[in-house]
Fold each of these.
Amino acid sequence: MLLVIENRKTTNRNMTWSASQLVLVAALVANPFWDTATVGQNPWQNPVTPFDVNDDTFFTPDDFLVESNAIRAGRILTLPADAPPYYDVSGDMPEPFLSPLDLLLMVNEAAVGSDFIAGPPPGAASPPIGPMQIRYDITDAAASPLSMVNVGADFLLNAYVLDTRSGPLGVFGAYVDVVFDDQLATIAGAALHGTDFESFPNDGLVVAGGIKDVGSITSSLFDPLSSSELLFFSLPMVAAAPGQVVFGGIDNYSMLIGLDDPLTADVVSASLTIVPEPTWPEPTWLVLWLGLIAGTARASFVVAERQTQTLENVGGIF
Ligand SMILES: [Ca+2]
Ligand SMILES: [Ca+2]
């Protein structure tokens, strides 16, 4: 087991470290009880891999959810009678306990290890619908709302997340499939993750009819998040063909602070009307067309001038 903090700055897995957390990390390095040889000797440590807290055989973001919930709820030093969840990642011996060190070990392993999957567990069934919302809207690069664009125009598809419980604690994270007609619009760049959700980002896999598993989890595993609606990600896109394109889909693996089980959030879709680019006549036809207008105007002027002269001559008789 290797604890590397510096590398985290070079990855795209940003975490916020307070001075007290760094002290905890230093304490971990010096902790005489931290030893991989203890794996399998502690009833609250997963005997197969200590990072699989919820014991589903994978190390994925929902393991962070379970561990973070336990620490936020103040369960430090008090482990439940039965495991799993296997909260004691560090495998403290001779006396097991749960602390922020366990979560920090997971952060380190996810940043430098090869066993972490930044997305839902492979083969996981869609979780039941729960009290969370993912809302899409469409803007230009300056964040002005868009409802209609020309073919070829760039735009941003933005996703926002909201904890809709009566007593909201905030959104922990999500990995979502965005469904849309890829004949009408195409993805033009990597996802831009919201500043509140920069941990363990997944830019998604582009597939026919959309993109799979775009998402991340909270930028701070220790501090409370705002319970108001937050920007989750923005996807750069380009309008490809005329039509009305709808961005939606309900297949998402979403997580709320305080709930150990992932859920499926309600999705509020967004639509965009794409119209053809303005067309202009060929240059030859344009010259003829302008010439015709000029000729017509000249003829009208001549006629008007002659009418004026005629009236003047008539006036001269009297
Ligand atoms: Ca797991
Ligand atoms: Ca521990």
Amino acid sequence: MSPEVTAFFDEATNTISYVVRDPKGSACAVVDSVLDFDYASGRTDTRSADAIIGFVREKGYEVQWLLETHVHADHLSAAPYIQQELGGRIGIGDNIRIVQDTFGKVFNEGTEFQRDGSQFDQLFHEGDSVHIGQLRVDVLHTPGHTPACLTYVIGDAAFVGDTLFMPDFGTARCDFPGGSSETLFASIQKILALPDETRIFVGHDYKAPGRDDYAWETTVGEQKALNVHVGSGKSAEDFVKMRDARDATLAMPKLIIPSLQVNMRAGQMPPADEQGNVYLKVPVNKL
Ligand SMILES: [Fe+2]
């Protein structure tokens, strides 16, 4: 089965969100949505999410799932906002508990912050499968970028989040707490073991030297042949050396501090004070 995939590109965070529909009906899922956030003013905006909501309403689709590939560090998830407007269940990998434990400490969250993943509607385990209408979704645990990263294999399409990027850009960084380049290499081998014609939809695109347009769709076959970090049979050892050296040069994503606090709560803001005010923390010299 080949799902109908519609991409929504957010230029501010280079994120691609997807609406994935069962071609035999109206059921769909939304993968990795974006809540716009202007850090300088502390203001949120729903422009990006509203584009998805408008599309789903216009087509008459029914949202069954809001799938997160991982706890994103570069944008806030709009899953709860889209859920409020359109319904659906919010799912993420069961290793979210590790991520909540790590960042619960970094942000000195009190005991009211549960680290058991209970903020999400469903925690997926390796090998789980669920349905979007009649379309089967198979869950692959693909950690490395973060401990909770998942790949959703939906019919002939794989939503790989931040594991593989476009072949000319390579792979995702592995230097966030709990990340591991060795683990990512092993996870990528699982994705590359899918049939060559499998369509791969990546979570981000930053263009690449010599490429003028954004792109987000490729195939397993193309990744195996051409991926600049892992293609044409590159060894785990070479990959780890390259990835770790490159990660040491990368700045933190602009929105990492607000993103982690919100996304580890399934896209909810921290609890409001008695007056209804909401605050995010900035941990000093912690990240
Ligand atoms: Fe990410």
Amino acid sequence: MNTEAMIIRKAGESDTEPVRKLLSTYFLNMEGVGIKNFIVAESNGRVLGCAAIVENKYPELHSIAVHPNHRSRGIGSLLVGYFAANAPDGREWLYVRTTAPRFFENMGFRKLQDSEKVKLWDDCAGCDMLEGCSQSAMRLQLKK
Ligand SMILES: CC(C)(COP(=O)(O)OP(=O)(O)OC[C@H]1O[C@@H](n2cnc3c(N)ncnc32)[C@H](O)[C@@H]1OP(=O)(O)O)[C@@H](O)C(=O)NCCC(=O)NCCS
């Protein structure tokens, strides 16, 4: 893909509606995550992709989405790559819980066992659906 015109940048308040609209394409929402936690992929003034990082116990990637007409052109990889390259010092891992594990595997993420999932996330530890969960928990080792 020609990524020359593609900018990956931190989101600002004015990106709230474009991000909300993009996520709604996939029946996703901002999950209570503030717009300042998001980055966007912008081309010709249009938001074509977004993703967020939530820092609780560990940094976790949330709400990644690429406009349906622009998928499979490397935008999702650029968004993940931005977070990996700009992780704060001292961070060893970037986590994700996802329904698209193949995409994250291609990016170098590796799957975690349920036993690790329950140690990492309180909401997983308290969940009755853990075994049948549609989300794969994965992590990427950050290179420093
Ligand atoms: C997942 C997503 C963010 C990837 O962004 P993208 O810009 O299409 O990704 P890239 O172009 O960098 O990489 C594409 C590759 O990732 C993989 N991939 C992308 N989406 C995938 C999915 N839903 N399931 C499995 N693999 C996927 C494929 O290997 C694909 O390569 P291919 O097109 O040659 O088959 C995007 O497809 C998307 O918005 N999906 C819908 C929302 C979603 O499922 N978000 C994840 C929720 S955790």
